[in-house]
Amino acid sequence: MKDPNQPEPAPTGNGIPITPLVIEDLKRRSEAGEKKYGTVLRAHNGRDCLVDAYQEALDLCQYLRQRIEEKSMEVEEVKGLIQDAVSYETRFIHKEDIIGFNQWCERLAEKIVRHTVWSVNE
Fold first, then answer.
1. Cβ contacts of residue 107 below 8 Å, gap of 6+?
2. 60 lies in some domain
3. Domain carrying residue 119
């Protein structure tokens, strides 16, 4: 995992703009809230919005840290598979255990593809 105390580099690339996605999410969230509570979120609604926001922020911190941990574990898993595959190859390739080695390679490819797809979608 990267050091969370180090700043990220300046953004680059030509991906899709995020603000319109957030606006659409806000619209959907408001509609869901209206369905659930019978009204949209309004000021002076009897709730302490600071407490609500703080509780949501605490949840968000946990979700973010969970994803960081899961991503870190995936990277370590792929690294381990690569090391295992190399070790497996050197031990068994001489015995012509090509099927076993191919199975290792397939597992490795699946993990890399899964990790790559998750990274692209993030």
1. 81
2. no
3. 68-122
The pair of three-digit structure tokens given for residue 100, joined into one six-digit string = 């076993």
Q: What pLDDT digit, counting tens, does each position of 72-121 carry?
A: 777 777 777 777 766 665 665 555 566 676 777 777 777 777 665 555 45
The pLDDT of residue 99 is 67
Length of the chain as a residue count: 122
Across residues 28-52, what is the average pLDDT?
Answer: 95
Alpha helices (H) along 38-121: 49-92, 98-121
Q: Is residue 27 part of a domain?
A: no
> Rounded to whole angstroms, how far apart are CA atoms 63 and 28?
21
- Whether 119 is covered by a domain: the verdict is yes
Provide the domain count of the chain.
Answer: 1
35 located within any domain: no
